[in-house]
Amino acid sequence: MSGIVFFRTAEREAVVDFYRERLGFETWVDQDGCTILRHDDLKLGFCDGDESETEGIVTLYYDTREEVDAARERLDDVATDDPRENEQYDIYQFFGEDPEGRTLEFQTFLHDLPE
């Protein structure tokens, strides 16, 4: 089974450009009023609306701390904090925002993940 998380957006072109150009997503499906992007096993849909849905957190996870640090350097203009360890969840993370204010989390797990 696979899935897609959809968001209404008032600025679809700017948001799609951000996810493609800054986060490495590619367009999977482009329909009238709705663009679905994918990156590895994550698919996000952005569909035209009068208001933007910004609730929740879009989390992008990496294999290493070094990759999280590199993302932080590359995304300095949208980052809202610096990378740090989160002992509660055994992760290394920082946060940022997309052009409409959706919270983005960039993280790596500090333990092995199940297969």
Automatic annotation (TrEMBL):
Domain VOC: 1-109
CDD domains: VOC
Region forming the signal peptide: none
InterPro entries documented for this protein: Glyas_Bleomycin-R_OHBP_Dase, VOC_core
Official protein name in the record: VOC family protein
Biological source species: Halobacterium litoreum
Higher taxonomy: Archaea, Methanobacteriati, Methanobacteriota, Stenosarchaea group, Halobacteria
